[in-house]
From TrEMBL:
InterPro entries: ATPase_BadF, ATPase_NBD, Euk-type_GlcNAc_Kinase. Gene3D superfamilies: 3.30.420.40. It comes from the Bacteria. SUPFAM superfamilies: Actin-like ATPase domain (SSF53067). Residues 8-303 form the ATPase BadF/BadG/BcrA/BcrD type domain. This is ATPase. Pfam families: BcrAD_BadFG.
Length: 339
């Protein structure tokens, strides 16, 4: 069998699957729904991954009775603790997609996507927030990233929930006046935020904090003090995640990359990235702060190519394909129908 890498970037909101050969040529790529096994269940999550992997294999012209790849590199949201990575590795190995399997947290894929060596720090701020770091000698630093119970603050869900919290308190008098209140009223097409809360409570409407997150940045751009404080806190949290990881790995005085990714960061232009870069460089002057310019699934594939001993030319070929805006196939896999 020709060496191939099956790369999976399993996020909370979407799953990306990429099949590449040992030379870095893209054989197939598909996207489908997010299916974190810790959220939807192990079997259902892996069934979604398998459907996407089999679809990629079919697009690449592989026979159904041959292994999809020689190595699977799966970087998954929710694989936050070593025990979870071990469980996922065992269950994915049972699926027989490839001869060898590696499972890691999806933030490591972001780091590899944004660097040539996988050394440095990556901070992702999308649905949630997380950071990982890798030193030159292979030492790693990571956070549990389990939410408030592990000290986390940030991500689209956090910002959206906090926006609703501030709007409620602005209306009932417990909090400061804020333009978040009329912004949320317009979003829900209601005259009172308490009516919104009541409808959420009785499950007449769904609370989707991620949909509220962009309102925070819109209101902050108009100078609202409450919204600006939320953005400021997010910037500070990203700086903390970055510098703590650098310090733990003795990289404060090293010319390493700090890679930023996730929808909350990449969709807000320089509002977050600019202040983060400025403050990180005050603490670590040699660091390079950059926003990832290829999808994290590319990082998963690059890590897989590292594992099978691919040449540096393979990385260049793969990156070039994405810089040329290689399209992906959208799958019709339904996460709720799987399993």
């Amino acid at each position: 069998m020709t060496d191939r890498v099956l790369a999976i970037d399993g996020g909370n909101s979407k799953t990306a699957v990429l099949l590449v050969d040992a030379d870095g040529k893209v054989l197939a790529q598909v996207r489908g729904p997010g299916a974190p096994p810790q959220t939807v269940g192990m079997k259902r999550g892996l069934d979604v991954f398998e459907e996407l992997a089999r679809e990629a294999a079919a697009l690449a012209g592989l026979s159904p009775d041959e292994p999809i790849a020689s190595h699977t590199a799966a970087y998954l949201a929710g694989a936050d603790l070593p025990r979870e990575e071990e469980d996922l590795t065992r269950e994915i190995t049972k699926r027989g997609w490839s001869t060898t399997t590696f499972v890691g947290n999806d933030t490591f894929a972001l780091l590899r996507a944004g660097t040539n060596s996988g050394v440095g720090v990556a901070v992702v701020c999308g649905a949630g927030i997380n950071a990982v770091g890798v030193a030159h000698d292979g030492r790693t630093h990571r956070f549990p990233a389990l939410g408030a119970i592990s000290g986390d603050w940030g991500g689209g869900g956090q910002l959206g929930n906090d926006a609703l919290w501030h709007a409620v308190r602005a209306e009932d008098g417990r909090g400061e006046p804020t333009e978040l209140l009329p912004a949320l009223l317009a979003h829900y097409d209601e005259s009172s935020i308490l009516k919104v809360v009541e409808k959420i409570h009785f499950e007449e409407i769904a609370l989707d904090p991620h949909a509220l997150c962009p309102l925070v940045f819109e209101v902050a751009a108009r100078g609202d003090a409450v919204a600006l404080a939320q953005v400021e806190r997010l910037v500070e949290e990203i700086v903390l995640l970055s510098t703590v990881s650098l310090r733990k790995l003795d990289l404060m005085d090293e010319p390493v990359d700090i890679v930023l990714g996730g929808g909350v960061i990449t969709n807000t232009g320089d509002v977050v990235v600019g202040p983060v870069r400025e403050r990180v460089l005050e603490a670590a002057p040699l660091a390079q702060v950059r926003v990832v310019d290829v999808p994290p699934v590319v990082g998963a594939a690059l890590a897989g190519l590292d594992t099978i001993g691919a040449s540096p030319g393979a990385e260049l070929r793969l990156r070039s394909a994405y810089h040329d805006h290689l399209p992906a196939t959208e799958s019709t896999v339904d996460v709720m129908a799987s399993g």
